[in-house]
């Protein structure tokens, strides 16, 4: 069964590159840069995993707080190294730091979609 | 017998007085009648004030007063006083023979001579030096007090019984008015977040000669604000075996805030720089996969995308570097003569390469030669345009309007994008400013800051008009 991933980011280049890379790993991938559209896409696309940037951290928190999306796995990407900015306080399923260690990222994604 | 004894003692006392009158060096004595006419002076008076008998005998004693005191009728008041009370003390200036004022202390006594005639004996001491010392001491004290109360730092002294024996204005402003004689240092300790630790160190300082410096402490002010202080403590130089400690608390709240803000900014900049880096990692990975597949077309695509990301990275680093230079006033402007329209055309071409989807409409023109930094102006125009596109919220239309007269050239870039909230307008050209709504758009908040610095270096102006939700118009003008 093909697992589905939704990428939410502000960087068009990153979203399309991630899509290409994940598609080669046999995932089905959609992306959006418009935060407001996310709930609607989730309803239609029914992703197994959401990959969001720390800049969309509020969205991730909102989704975790909502009943219909609280079980949706979320992987947070961050470029921050400062301890007070890392989203450890946010109850995300996992965190990956930019620039990516791709083999680590691949393993994290595998674990999250299978859980 | 009795008569003779009295006479004897009278003569003796007369002799004694005469010898005192003639030989004293400290007491300058003056004898005058009840009208104030000087009858006699002793040698000490001559020594100290320079007047000889010829200068002074038969003259009215008001000649010894300053003009000012004469106008105030001080001599007459003194006379009335001694005639009424029989004795009086006065401190005032006495003018010596050379016209120099000396501060003196005088005692006047009403006496009666052998002929039962009333006379006034005046004993004068020159206390000018004491007065001068006193005055300079007062000034010095006043000066010290003013320095201590002017200092913004909190300065206070605690004795070995934990009593605050001196505190300046800043101290009272923070901790409230205290009774200087009796204030308990422990009450202050309670208000410091690590007061007990400071108290321990203070007690150590009392035992040894060493004080401490650079201890940090926090105080919540009466207004509820949190303030951070750098505390130093030193033993005051020992006097009368007293062990007093001088405390100085320097407010470093702003410094700490600046540090925190800088950390935030650096964190944010690092985050933004890692975006293109993350893209490069993905490009590289995909490139090696497409190469393995022998897919040249896709491989070339990833090479191009790598290149773009390297350029993005480089642009951010250049902006960061320029902003640092501009912040310290070292932005270099290299002026040359060039055609303004041609410069605008080149800027638009640059944007078209980067953002082919967007259409830039041009209105007006300035087919004139201007003397300015061509490269920097292209930087400003492309920045305005890419901002217009970046914040366009999906609308693909950005308009560029050029106008000029004899004096100035004005460029306006109009978008139909997000617009800027009114409260954010004043800060839009500030360094590292990013409005809340634009947090999802890439950028480190240096572009507009640099634009302003560049245009200001040309003696020009930047400004913005905006309607939130409808769009913005960014302007700049430079001398033509």
Question: Which key phrases capture this entry?
Answer:
heterodimer; A: 115 residues; alpha/beta; 5-stranded parallel β-sheet; 4 helices; B: 480 residues; alpha+beta; 6-stranded antiparallel β-sheet; 5-stranded antiparallel β-sheet; 14 helices; 18 strands
Written overview of the protein:
The complex is a heterodimer of chains A (115) and B (480). Chain A is built from 4 helices and 5 strands, in the order βαβαβαββα. In chain A, strand 3, helix 3 (57-65) and strand 4 form a beta-alpha-beta unit. The radius of gyration of chain A is 13 Å and the shape is globular. With 115 residues, chain A is an alpha/beta fold. Chain A has helices at 12-24, 38-45, 57-65, 102-114, and strands at residues 4-8, 28-32, 49-53, 73-78, 94-97. With 480 residues, chain B is of the alpha+beta class. Helices cover 44% and strands 26% of the residues of chain B. Chain B has 14 helices and 18 strands. Chain B has helices spanning 2-23, 43-49, 53-56, 67-71, 74-85, 128-150, 169-175, 185-189, 195-207, 253-292, 296-327, 340-354, 374-390, 447-457; strands spanning 28-33, 38-41, 87-95, 101-112, 118-126, 154-159, 163-167, 183-184, 212-220, 226-235, 244-251, 336-339, 359-363, 369-372, 397-404, 408-415, 461-467, 471-479. In chain B, the strands form 4 sheets. Chain B has a 6-stranded antiparallel beta sheet, sandwiched between helices. Chain B has a 5-stranded antiparallel beta sheet with strand order 2-1-5-4-3, sandwiched between helices. The longest helix of chain B has 40 residues, at 253-292. The model of chain B has no long low-confidence stretch (mean pLDDT 86).
